[in-house]
Amino acid sequence: MMVAQLELRAKRLDAAEQSLAASLQLQPRLRPAVLGVQKELRLWRKHGANSPASVGAWPGAKDPWFLAKLCGAGLAGVDVGEQVARALGVST
Prior knowledge:
It is a single chain. The chain is elongated, with a radius of gyration of 18 Å. The chain folds into two domains: 1-58; 59-92. α2 (13-26) runs antiparallel to α3 (31-47). The chain has five helices and no strands. By secondary structure, the chain is mostly helical.
């Protein structure tokens, strides 16, 4: 499943499709998640994965990884804050 997501982000749509099929064979209970990624795949194909204009057309709000990306950005901010505090000699 993760390989399919990575392939999709790298715009290797055929490889993403193959990874999704393999995911279903290995773990049939992943069907709902696979269907969600297949929906993304269809959007990429519809908007033209290799088109620079497709990046602006990508539905970011419907990105299943949006919350994870947001949390990652928040944690990166905390890391920066800790590094600044250490540099200033403040106890954390």
